[in-house]
Design goal:
211 residues; alpha/beta; Rossmann fold; 7 strands; globular; binds S-adenosylmethionine; Methyltransf_12; methyltransferase activity; methyltransferase; SAM-dependent_MTases_sf; transferase
Length: 211
Amino acid sequence: MGLGAAVRRRLGPLESPAAEAYRSIFIDLRRFADRLAARRSAERILEIGCGDGSTADQLCRAFPNAEYVGIDVAPDPGRRCGVSPERTSFSAITSSDLRRTGPQPFSLVVLVDVLHHIPDDADRRTVLADAVAMTEPGGTLVIKEWSGHRSLGYGLAYAADRYVSGDRDVRFTTEAELMALFEDALPGWTVAWRDVVRPWANNIVLALERR
Ligand SMILES: C[S@@+](CC[C@H](N)C(=O)[O-])C[C@H]1O[C@@H](n2cnc3c(N)ncnc32)[C@H](O)[C@@H]1O
């Protein structure tokens, strides 16, 4: 268990505010979701690697009419999500497992800070292929990553993921490497727009759509 998880468990009711405050050091998730909603509408949202549900909360707020599905390989996904279960569902399954169930396609498929927790390129490709397979025609795949260009923020994020989250295999990728991965793994898809989310220039958002 990472240091962060051990500390969080002892915080009780203070866990959520503490987790949100900690996360806000790295990214303004509210702004991320608002900027996404300004770009497009969505009826169904899939988040792959949803974690505790911090991004789920913001996506459901910014897309008030959307149905949200969150999956994660870790146990108890969406544990801290405050949105009604009537419009959210969370499952501890892989993207390939979900894909096999043949879900109704999603208008928006989102991965927020997930790829750098998947060290192996083949596994990244599998998740990306699953993501686009579950995206409806005209839908958007949004990858929010922590770009591996060196900065003070980069060092902070590496230390947080390596020592606080306890992920020994964390592997950040430069934006150029990500683009090359998409080019290779997602033929027929192109980056339709790009964004940067405060407070760090490392927070890049790449939105992919079918050509
Ligand atoms: C930094 S957390 C981000 C959680 C959430 N997206 C957010 O923004 O709050 C990264 C998450 O990715 C999940 N993850 C790692 N590899 C995954 C995979 N192959 N498929 C789905 N989730 C994965 C981890 O379990 C973890 O919950």
